[in-house]
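Hi Y.,

Following your request, here is the sequence exactly as I used it, all 349 residues.
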Amino acid sequence: MTRFAAALFARIAALALVALTLFALPAAAQAPAPVSGLLDDLASRQELDPLKTVIVSRDGRILAERGYRGNRATDSTNIKSASKSIISALVGIAIDKRLLEGPDQKIAPILKADLPASPDPRINDITIGHLLSMQAGLGRLSGPNYGRWVASRNWVRTALAQPFDGDPGGQMLYSTASTHLLSAILTKVSGRSTLALARDWLGPLEGFRIGAWDRDPQGIYLGGNQMAMSTRSLLAFGELYRNGGRTTSGRQLVSPEWIAASWQHRTNSRFSGDEYGYGWFERQVAGEEVHFAWGYGGQMLYIVPSLDLTVVMTSAESGPSARNGYRDALHLVLGEIITRVKADPETDG
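Below is the corresponding structure, written out as tokens. Let me know if you'd prefer a different format.
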């Protein structure tokens, strides 16, 4: 059992003991401490050593914000695959601007210059929607295959040349190459870089800013990884989605229809079982439906629509978060936050 798994088990046992204790107390004594107290407590939890920052916001008001081990919510951090949700937003805006036809549009005509000389006929069936939901069918270029992919001379051509591991529209094959193809498509149809589009289309969102962002050998910004943002910036993006695509001033940047389409269940992760839409995961946490973006190491953006709640957690990017139980530890923390928000009237939006 790994150190993280052991600590996680201990935390679950502790929570169970607390629940039993509370059950035996008078009702007036059962209300948990405020969210701010919970965030203070996180600093001492061994299983959360990688945790850098947490922000909890309800209905546009920050309830609590903490930085751990010298980190601050205004510091720039690599949000890793949480950036896939931002790519999804840009695709939705491109559709609204009629630069793209919609999720059912085939990608081969757009990327024809980079197709293999004798492609598998199934490449003609891949759509924009398939790339968004990780159902393109092309061999995965994440995990153990990621290194050789980013070491290639042309990331788009290498992605399109992968043997098919399934049919388009079939099982979920999580691959950063899929969102990178979306970045290439956005660049192709707009004649502008993906970073320029993000700064233009999402720039009116107060507090939103993308810093450093890696590019491929052809200059295309890496769709779905290696994007620097602060915790505050990721919160601003999450608040945009929680607020139906509108800024605090009422300006519509992302259509509510696209948000609904992005949060619609389309497939499931074969690793976690979580539902997946267009660049967003979904699961039940503490009895509430949660939509979330997840990046390597534990870069998390959670949105809980039923509670008007947005939570951001950033972590050290040096280690995985799924295999060692750390991601599940973060889900448990979210569950504690949800429980305290429900119990504490001071958190009413």
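The longest strand covers residues 51-58.

Thanks again,
Q.
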